[in-house]
Amino acid sequence: MNSSAIILAGGLSKRFGQDKGLVPLAGKPLIKHVTETVNPIVNEIIVVVNSETQVEEFSKILGNVKIVVDAWNTHGPLVGAATGFKTARGEYGLMLPCDTPLISREVLTLLLDLCINRNAVIPRWPNGYIEPLHAVYRVKPAL
C-alpha cells in the first residue's frame, strides 16, 4: 500500500513546558519511538512542526525523515494535518501525534488495511469519542 505517516509535532507544549516530542523515554526522544514504529509499514514519514527552530532540533535526532513547517501561521492540529496531507506522496496518510511512544505497529497496520477503498478509518472509543490523530485518511479527499 502506498502510504505516508504524518506525525504532528508542532504543538506549543505550553502546559508541558517543553517540546514533548523531544522528551526522552527509555533513552530516546518520544518522536523517535513513533518514527521507529511506523518506519516498516509506510513508504514515507513526514513530521510537521511549527518553526524552523523545530526543524533544526528534530533533524538532529531523526536523520532522513522529511520535516516540514506548518503551511499557515495559525497553529493547531488541523493546520498540521493539512500541511502533512499537502506534502504526502502516499495515497493514504497515517495521522499520529509525536508523543505516543507506545503505539502498536499491529494496530496501525490494521488501520491501514481497513482504509483500503475508504476515505478514512478513525477509531472510536466505547464512550463514542473518536481518535482523529490515530487514524488513516485517504490523502486527496482529506486535503
Explain the overall architecture.
With 143 residues, the protein is of the alpha/beta class. It has one domain (3-142): Spore Coat Polysaccharide Biosynthesis Protein SpsA, Chain A (Alpha-Beta Complex), CATH 3.90.550. It contains five helices and eight strands; from the N terminus they run E-E-E-H-E-H-E-H-E-H-E-E-H. The protein has helices spanning 30-38, 52-62, 77-87, 105-114, 139-142; strands spanning 3-8, 24-25, 28-29, 44-49, 66-69, 92-97, 120-121, 135-138. It has a six-stranded mixed β-sheet with strand order 5-4-1-6-8-7, sandwiched between helices. A two-stranded antiparallel ribbon has the order 2-3. Strand 4, helix 2 and strand 5 (66-69) form a beta-alpha-beta unit. It is globular.
Secondary-structure topology with pairs:
Layout: E1 3-8, E2 24-25, E3 28-29, H1 30-38, E4 44-49, H2 52-62, E5 66-69, H3 77-87, E6 92-97, H4 105-114, E7 120-121, E8 135-138, H5 139-142
Parallel strand pairs: 1-4, 1-6, 4-5
Antiparallel strand pairs: 2-3, 6-8, 7-8
Number of strands: 8
Q: What is the fourth-level CATH superfamily? A: Spore Coat Polysaccharide Biosynthesis Protein SpsA, Chain A
CATH architecture: Alpha-Beta Complex
Mean pLDDT: 92
Helix content: 25-40%
Radius of gyration: 14 Å
Give the overall shape.
Answer: globular
Biggest sheet strand order reads: 5-4-1-6-8-7
| Number of helical elements | 5
Unreliable sequence segments? none
**Sheet with most strands:** 6 strands, mixed
What is the SS-derived class? alpha/beta
Q: Give the N-to-C terminal Cα separation.
A: 19 Å
Strand percent estimate: 15-25%
- CATH fold title: Spore Coat Polysaccharide Biosynthesis Protein SpsA, Chain A
Helix-strand sequence? EEEHEHEHEHEEH
- Overall structural domain count: 1
CATH class: Alpha Beta
